[in-house]
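[Q] Does anyone have a clean structure-token version of this?
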Amino acid sequence: MRNTRILTFAMVFAAGAGLFGTPGLAQQRQNYPTKPVRMLSGAFGSPSDMLARVLAPKMSESWGQPVVVENRPGAAGTIAAALLAKATPDGHTLLLISAQFTIGAALHATLPYDPYKDFAGVTQIGFSTSALFVSPSLGARTVKDFIALARAKPGQMLFSSGGGGSSTHLNAERFNYAAGIKAVHVGFKGTPDALIEVVAGRTHYCIVGLGSALPFVKDGRLLALAVSTPQRSPLLPDVPAIPEVLPGFGRDGSHSLLAPAGTPQPIRERISKEVARIFALPEVRERLEAIAYHPAPTTPAEHDRILRDQIKTFSEVATRVGLKKK
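[A] Here you go.
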């Protein structure tokens, strides 16, 4: 009898704790933000900076608090990430990252933060459209043509990128692996140089952002054989998506929004819902479609899984091509 009373008391106490605890969580979400929010990003004019400047004014308008974009470029994003790792975990400091964050976690043994433990995922933002570009003089008009040509010349095809360990390098290596191609990497100081080398015919192909290459496609100096997104791009509706012909290719790394580890779940959820609301606005979708950007917001839990999967993917690619952790 006594044990039954104790058990009953414990159950009632637990239920009461749940009832009293719930308003506290709801209040955290409702009260946030209570002061200006800092949104850290990379260099001014970079894709992550552009996305931050799309989100910030809409968030400010909705929340009634300033959301200030703060550019912290340098060291492939590690400077900004280190700042976030040390910030107070109350949701008032956020970081908009690119694929360089997950690539850095895959390639660097020592970082000024722990990419797994020092951050809390808020939401995936989305991903840019990249494409497989070749020179018209190569003679390949489809992905299948290109793969057949490359397989017939193992080790003879040259592909250019924006530098060893960059997203343009690792995404091309992912394509090579999925297609069964053996090719030689030629790294340059940035994506524009990598693109020009293909236009000039000094390298055979590259996988880079659609936005920077589109003018060359329109004037006939480049051919886009496939886009890297799951679906075709409205900017090039006749060009297939790589997954249509290579189901194992997967998707490029994405942009994401992070908070410091320990940021309360209700606050992370409120921010993620706000991002989803903004990306559903017709004027925002129109603006992003014009630059071949695909918004793909997620819940915090989904985002945490995506981030870990991307680090794993880039780690596997780096191992396959012999890139050792620094």
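[Q] Thanks! Anything notable?
[A] The chain has two domains: 37-127+252-320, 130-227.
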